[in-house]
Amino acid sequence: MKRCVPVVALLFLLVACSGEQPPPREVQVVVDTVVEEPYQPKREYVGRLQARDDVAIQARVSGYLTTREFDEGQVVQAGQVLYTIDSSEYDAALARARAELAAAVAVQSNAERNFRRGKELLPKGAISQAEMDNLTATKLDADARLKSAEAQVTSAEVNLSYTTITAPITGRIGRSIASVGDLVGPNSGNLTTLVSIDPIEALFQVSETTYLATLGADLTRDIDVERLRALEVTLELANGVSYPEVGYMDYFSNRVDAETGTLEARAAIPNPHALLVPGQYVRVILQRTTLVEGLFVPQAAVQVDQQGSYVLTVEEGSVVVRHNVELGERMDQLVRVHGGVAAGDQVIVRGLQLVRPGMTVTARSVDGPAAAPATPPAQ
User: What is the pTM for the complete model shown?
Assistant: First the structure.
């Protein structure tokens, strides 16, 4: 009885081995097409806003503040009065200067008459040459004193004008450091600050690599600054909201920073409603105004490993092939690739985890009819 058990087991094994192996299960994937289409290249940078004009308001003469003519934080116009300083001392100084000028005019007029009279008498021998020389010296001295008196009047008028402090530009004024009654002067520091608001500037750093890429392969031509400036500049604020106004490039530095390897750049942004303020950090988006052609693959087709980014394509014979790619800008659900694939190639977008290069698969288009889910091959 014990001998029968091994015999039965052997017979069962022979019958099982004589049967045919089941065919491997079919692997189904979904593919999409590599497309070549026009797009507007764009790049993003982190920038900081600054005022085009940032003015420190200071007193140019000493005296007590008598009035403050603005509300802190308001927009003031160029020429608007901001402060007044007690002018009594400077009114008196101007009056003295004008009196001295009148005296100098009288002295100069008398010296001028004596000089002319001496020129008439000298040929007649009525006066000596020494006397004529004295008359000439007196006239020249009177002329000099007259000019000095005129300069004193001008200086007194200027100092008097400084007792009224006006806004040099149109902009938003800051907090007043000085109060009415304070003694202020050239050494008392800033009274307040004033910044321009429209346009406002965005300052950011462009990498040296980006700068060279902009120049292109032809390094023998002159830099076309106007072409560099023909860029649309938009901003994205810290809360993710896109600022509606479009700006333009207006400055590139004349050197690359040796420490950071970047080139300073600046854009002018319209700010008609004063929504943007200096010091804000923003995302600066540069975009060309002309279209260029580029290759795009679906973002879902891109994978990354130790060798870099790559896509899997289904080629002749339904064979899976790997293509290494260098990624560029993103556009919605697509990403630009620099070589590695060609327009019309079929890249796998679904079922990537079930396939590997060299496998044979069944592919359907992403826009085609529904098919059964991809299944792994039989072990």
Answer: 0.62
